[in-house]
Amino acid sequence: MADMRVLVTGGAGYIGAHTLVAMLAAGQRPLVLDNFSNGSAEAVRRVERLCSASIPLIEGDIRQPGVVQAVLAQAAAGGDPVRAVLHLAGCKAVGESVADPLKYYDNNVAGSLALLHAMRETGVARLVFSSSATVYGEPQSLPFTEAHPLAPANPYGRTKLMVEQMLRDLCAAQAGFGAVTLRYFNPIGAHPSGQIGESPRDVPNNLFPFITQVAVGRRPFLNVFGDDYATADGTGVRDYLHVMDLAQGHVQALDYALAHPGFVAVNLGTGQGTSVLELVQAFERVNQCRIPLRTQPRRPGDIERMWADPALAASLLGWRSRRGVDAMCADGWRWQQGNPRGYETDPPAA
Q1: DSSP for 49-103?
Q2: How confident is the model at residue 348 (pLDDT cuts 50, 70, 90)?
Q3: What CATH number has the domain bearing residue 330?
Q4: Are 20 and 11 in contact (CB under 8 A)?
Q5: What positions carry a catalytic annotation?
Q6: In the chain, how many domains are there?
Q7: Which of 152, 171, 233, 255 has a C-alpha 20 to 30 A away from that of 81?
Q8: At 112, is the secondary structure helix, strand, or coil?
Q9: Is the pTM of this model over 0.70?
């Protein structure tokens, strides 16, 4: 729905910045709250320039008592009340969640609980939640449908599932509350302008920024974890999704949430599996460069194959992925070439 004020928690992050572009194109009016633990004010400034728009940006942590309530109350007092919340604020590294699970339960679960309390206290009753395909765990069948059993294999996935359960229970208890939880598969790439993209701090947690950092010379080679899976080339298979397609999914989920109370979970993926080596080869072909590889042992907890059944997103939200792997590779490389160190102005510590 156009001309709708939406609070975007974590809106200065990778997914957040691209979603701001899609929201502005749809006439929605984002209000960003971010603690900058994994986001950048520069990303929001670049979105403003790209879209010739002004985006209110507030530094704050959703876990801090009174912060979200104050933001929502101030918007209402100013005559421009928030109609819905897009909740993107959360820690998202599987390996880190295993090493430091309390950080994930604090940030992802306790943070979401604090947000929901603030929404209830200020009368905001629509939410779109950034969940993850990790809630499914090991596949019992493929592709993953939303009806697949939920058995996350790591603390990150368990925190996402806990928040989903909170939302399901809240929707059952509060008749007027509506929540759409979006189960992301593997977003990669960047805005085609090359002005915003993924800018991980320290060592990347995902495959694609490793590829682009090797290509731009920040890293000497790409580690491939496992080449002995039961797949066509021995490497793991994932459902890679262009980040701008994912961003559009949030816009359509917000429209749906506003019109429909109750809880629903929806996959956002392409429905196609691509192996690690296939992604590397596509990147080399599209961008005319070489990515040196080193094979390493499998990592504990990695799943062999996973991809989405996106049929529910099509029927419920009217959403489909539009961009293929070649576009993901070209757009991601355009961003990294123009921004070798992402949004950083100084080289990171060794």
Answers
A1: HHHT----EEE--TTSTTHHHHHHHHHHHTT----EEEE------HHHHHH-HHH
A2: very low
A3: 3.40.50.720
A4: yes
A5: 156
A6: 1
A7: 171
A8: helix
A9: yes
